Amino acid sequence: MPRLRDRATGEILVLMIAGTICSSVLLAGATVGIVKAFHPGTDVSAGLNALTDIINTLVGLLAGFLAGRTDRSQELEPPKSDNKPTDSGV
Question: Model-level pTM greater than 0.85?
Answer without folding.
Answer: no
